[in-house]
Backbone:
């Protein structure tokens, strides 16, 4: 979890580079280290005991910090999970960047970004399974679809917009707005499969990625075909109706 010290801000008056002194406004390495320690400890306890059974007091005790100090950095367990989401996204973004800089082919860009997501998520596989029990509740603030998760969701969607519009694939204007969201949903489906995948090295997950990325890229490539425009408009109308 080398990137723990780069976890995103969770309304504590911090920046990603460290804590901010209340008196001077300067970043403090000690605050950065304490915040990373608390988050790292929380993830360990969530893996050991589950999310519901882990308390902020237990996290503070295991981390060796005062309870008030733990609450200073993270106001609740939910804020810890949101910090984990942000951390996971930052690790994904860093791993995906070389692919986006190197590749122009739509299929290779999409496959590289999805691969990067699975590879950077692998250290959290067991924890993700435990978290899924709570995050699968559509009313939970830990759901990837919740308002509380909107910032990370929007940043992830922006990554797929970059995947799409940095490629050499032409996308019809009426489809361009919807595709980044649809690609994010596609990734969420892959992640759900990965959570349940117990094959050696997650072999089944990578097989699923290889086959479905090819289908997705081919479908996007065909979207400009004039013969398919009635079907495209029908699909887009359906998506609009589902949001209303």
Residues:
């Amino acid at each position: 979890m080398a990137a723990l010290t780069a976890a995103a801000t969770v309304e504590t008056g911090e920046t990603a580079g460290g804590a901010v002194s209340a008196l001077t406004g300067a970043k403090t390495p000690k605050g950065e280290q304490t915040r990373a320690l608390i988050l790292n400890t929380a993830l360990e306890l969530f893996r050991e005991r589950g999310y519901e059974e882990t308390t902020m007091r237990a996290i503070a005790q295991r981390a060796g910090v005062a309870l008030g100090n733990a609450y200073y950095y993270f106001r609740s367990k939910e804020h810890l999970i949101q910090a984990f989401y942000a951390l996971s996204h930052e690790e994904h973004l860093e791993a995906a960047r070389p692919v986006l800089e190197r590749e122009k082919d739509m299929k290779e860009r999409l496959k590289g970004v999805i691969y990067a997501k699975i590879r950077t998520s692998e250290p959290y596989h067991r924890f993700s399974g435990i978290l899924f029990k709570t995050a699968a509740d559509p009313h939970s603030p830990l759901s990837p679809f919740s308002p509380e998760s909107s910032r990370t969701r929007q940043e992830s969607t922006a990554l797929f917009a970059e995947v799409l519009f940095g490629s050499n694939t032409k996308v019809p204007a009426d489809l361009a707005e919807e595709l980044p969201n649809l690609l994010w949903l596609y990734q969420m489906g892959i992640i759900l499969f990965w959570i349940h995948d117990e094959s050696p090295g997650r072999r089944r997950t990578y097989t699923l990625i290889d086959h479905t990325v090819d289908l997705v890229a081919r479908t996007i490539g065909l979207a400009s075909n004039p013969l398919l425009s009635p079907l495209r408009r029908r699909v887009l109308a359906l998506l609009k109706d589902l949001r209303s």
Residues 1-27 have pLDDT under 50 and may be disordered. The first strand starts at residue 19 and ends at 20.
